[in-house]
């Protein structure tokens, strides 16, 4: 099967690709990346987000892509394969570089996407809302792995809002994208992760993806075997969330919650280092 993956250039998407690609070795895979979720802040019609969100974006993207990945590439080449691969190393594994595609809805972007001849498209944290001409290309449809439980947590940073709302568990939702509305398509399945009050928002986000990628791999197996996929329509009720304000971020912190934790990050990034040589 020809599968086109749409992901974002951040550490959570990278982790998801590391977990998913070994499950797709029997398929032809093409990967396109968005540069970020939403419009670039600080332009003529936008305001800079709160500093806490800018710090989080730096950790999720700038630190990983611009600083760590180039250094990791040198270490990986010198000492062998680590547990997790950078975007560049994932491209080498596929045999072709991962392409950045931010203009997928433009005529040129649509042509690039269509040229990958996808039978199925899979979106994981992709930063651009897909329009109908893109959605109509794959005959088996477009599915999205949303890092929140639908329909209660549509929109962005679903795990943040669930933690702020005192949820006992978080989760992902695998659903079809049928139109340009956000997080409203028929639901294929949910995964669940108990909240660990001692862990950060980013820890929870990263730990959502093993079970979420299992759902994707199971769906691909179903489709490859021509088995029917059972789905559930979403109710009209639900909530849509956008990026938190400075006041909401302060409330998050006041409750003893953290966006990220340094020790957790050291442990996560350590997975990109080559395993120590056997004595």
Quick overview of this protein structure:
This protein is of the alpha/beta class. The protein has helices at 11-20, 51-79, 87-94, 107-115, 132-135, 158-164, 201-224, 246-254, 262-269; strands spanning 2-8, 28-34, 99-100, 120-124, 142-146, 154-155, 169-176, 187-194, 240-241.
How would you characterize the overall build of this protein?
The chain has helices at 11-20, 51-79, 87-94, 107-115, 132-135, 158-164, 201-224, 246-254, 262-269, and strands spanning 2-8, 28-34, 99-100, 120-124, 142-146, 154-155, 169-176, 187-194, 240-241. The chain is α/β, with parallel strands linked by helices. The chain has a single domain, classed as Rossmann fold (3-Layer(aba) Sandwich). Strands 3-2-1-4-5-7-8 form a 7-stranded mixed sheet. It has a two-stranded parallel ribbon with strand order 6-9. Strand 4, helix 5 and strand 5 (142-146) form a beta-alpha-beta unit.
Question: Strands, helices and their partners?
Answer:
Layout: E1 2-8, H1 11-20, E2 28-34, H2 51-79, H3 87-94, E3 99-100, H4 107-115, E4 120-124, H5 132-135, E5 142-146, E6 154-155, H6 158-164, E7 169-176, E8 187-194, H7 201-224, E9 240-241, H8 246-254, H9 262-269
Parallel strand pairs: 1-2, 1-4, 2-3, 4-5, 6-9
Antiparallel strand pairs: 5-7, 7-8
Helix pairs in contact: 1-7
